[in-house]
Amino acid sequence: MQKPGWKIRAVAILALAAFLAAGIGCTARAQATDSLATADDGTLPALSAIAGQGMTNIHAYSELEDLSDDIGGRVTGTPQCNTAIQWALAQMKEIGLQNVHAEPWQLFRGWTRGSAEASIISPAPHPLLVSAVGWTGSTPVGGIDADVVPINVWQVDKELAENSSNWRGKILFTVRKGPPPADGTLALIRFGAEFPKFRAAGALAVIGASRAQGMHLTHTGVIGMGTYSDIPAVSIAAEDEMIIDRLLDSGKTVRVHLDVQNKMTDGPVDTANVVGEIPGAEHPEQVVVVGGHLDSWDLSEGATDDGVGVATTLGAAEAILKSGMKPRRTIRFVLFTGEEQGIFGSRAYVKTHQDEMKNHVAAVILDNGQGPVVTLNMAGHDDLVPAVQSFAATLAAFGKITADDDVELYDDALPFTLAGLPGINLDQDSPDYRYTHHSAVDTFDKVDRAVLDRDATVQALVAFWIADRPERLASPWPAEKSEQMLIQKHDDADVKAMNMWPFGDDGSQN
Ligand SMILES: [Zn+2]
After folding, report:
1. Which of 177, 217, 435, 462 gives 20 to 30 Å between its CA and that of 301?
2. How far is it, in rounded angstroms, from Cα 459 to Cα 366?
3. In angstroms, what is the span from residue 11 Cα to ligand 1's centroid?
């Protein structure tokens, strides 16, 4: 069956056939025993044309440079983030997306970083490198001098029961002793939820609530999803953390000067997701969402988290539009804000589009750093894995890409998964991301152009394939089915800790 756009499609294919022939041929030979789903379903010629545009003719890299260097760190609700929203609207219009608009929503509070300084006063003076954790408070102006007491983050219940009577007027210093829990992230979320108890016990501040990963780097973040703390919490460089650790271990009293000044609003702040579309040629009401998050942390430029996802999303749109290919279904490009405070932008999207969710097919999210896409996490929809695996085989020229049914819990894919859809996370091989994300080295220079263009192209191909295949890939599961899946995969505890369970009312803020 011919679709509108077929003629222009044929022209584009001819122009790019030479470029792609090698890759496709290799795929066919390497997978000789498999049938190529894309060849069977008729999408391959369009995918070839889009791949050609993506690898030769998009501006993802220069867009990332603009976002990183000209706008920089963009914490949701700040003027910098608002500038980024305006910038993204302009980019989408320039690329030629349709129905470009901002979808306003409100974050529960706003927060702006001020200064953070610390030093050990005794037993010997040492400067300490610290950074405030987001959505945490300030010391009195001029700072505090206080003794440090350790608190084992792996056993917070025990600490509260046995040691909290000793916390008045002290600074809590996080340590990790004994066997780590099976789910470390979950343990940290639970630790973050206890900040009101730390404050009630008289603690003045927390050092090391968010752990630094690299050589003399701090790591910002939040203490929990949608939570804030009146007492300040700071991340500390690993080397400085170890100085305090050794002193405490040898039984010495460690006294620290800490001066942290931040600003937190009493009420909600305005922000917006940025949306643009390529309307579907046959089923415009059916929607495939493609995106990443526009907001970032502010210790640096937010280039790898998630400037990359912004750039690949824009690059994917550009590749598809320049190919002239028209997808059967609508591809909706969405740049979310509020991701870093608890995936609030994507939750707001699902809530805003609640009536339309039955027509959503999938979401394709890129937010795992600067490395190449290696796995399509299908969010518990194991029935889709064989088809996606087969599609992924046609991408072999981009390196090995596979599919599994893992659920990504910590990016904008999750609200779509909770809405019953495959919230597809494009998992990337990004070993350096643990140093770059949320730190002072999240800069544009960390991103390799070849990898970025490749990832934008892969994102375009995944989105287009889902939007254009003759059969609809997926429809939303009922809530009970998603719930069962999450329980079976032992992901329910994390979702509960994030205050997103039960999830009949998606997008609700606690
Ligand atoms: Zn991110």
Report:
1. 462
2. 8
3. 38
DSSP per position, 223-244: SSTT--BSS-EEEE-HHHHHHH
Please check whether residues 74 and 157 belong to one and the same domain. no
Which residue's structure tokens are 């990337």? 428
For residue 209, name the pLDDT band (cuts at 50, 70, 90).
confident
CA of 401 to the centre of ligand 1 (A): 21
Residue 194 shares a structural domain with residue 336:
no
How far does residue 309's CA lie from ligand 1's centre (Å)?
A: 8
Total domains, the chain: 2
> Distance from the CA of 367 to the center of ligand 1, in angstroms?
5
Enclosing H/E stretch for 132: strand 130-132
Asked if residue 509 belongs to a domain, the reply is: no
Q: In angstroms, rounded to a whole number, what is the distance separating the alpha carbons of residues 195 and 227?
A: 9
Q: Report the distance separating Cα 108 and Cα 55, nearest Å.
A: 40
CA of 292 to the centre of ligand 1 (A): 8
pLDDT of residue 140: 98
The verdict on pTM exceeding 0.70 is: yes
Supply the CATH number for residue 189's domain. 3.50.30.30
pLDDT at 36: 54
Look at residue 214 and tell me if it is in a domain: yes
Is there a single domain that holds both residue 255 and residue 134?
Answer: yes
Count Cβ atoms within 10 A of the Cβ of residue 504 and give its class: 0-12 exposed, 13-18 middle, 19 or more buried.
Answer: exposed
- For residue 7, how far is its CA from the centre of ligand 1 (angstroms)? 39
- Closest Cα to residue 362, out of 340, 343, 377, 345? 377
Report pLDDT digits (tens) over 242-253: 999 999 999 999
Shared domain check, 142 and 247: yes
**Angle between helical axes of 308-323 and 44-56 (0-180°, round to 10):** 120
CA distances from 259 to 145, 372, 438 (A): 9, 40, 21
CA of 437 to the centre of ligand 1 (A): 8
Distance CA(192)–CA(196), nearest Å, equals: 9
Which residues hold their Cβ within 5 A of ligand 1, which is an ion?
305-306, 367
The per-residue pLDDT for range 359-370, each reduced to its tens digit, is 999 999 999 999
Indicate whether 277 and 347 sit together in one domain: yes
Do 300 and 441 lie in one domain? The reply is: yes
Assess if residue 505 is contained within a domain. no
Q: How far is the CA of 233 from the centre of ligand 1 (A)?
A: 21
Same domain, 97 and 227: no
283 and 202 share a domain? no
End-of-domain residue from the set 211, 240, 264? 264
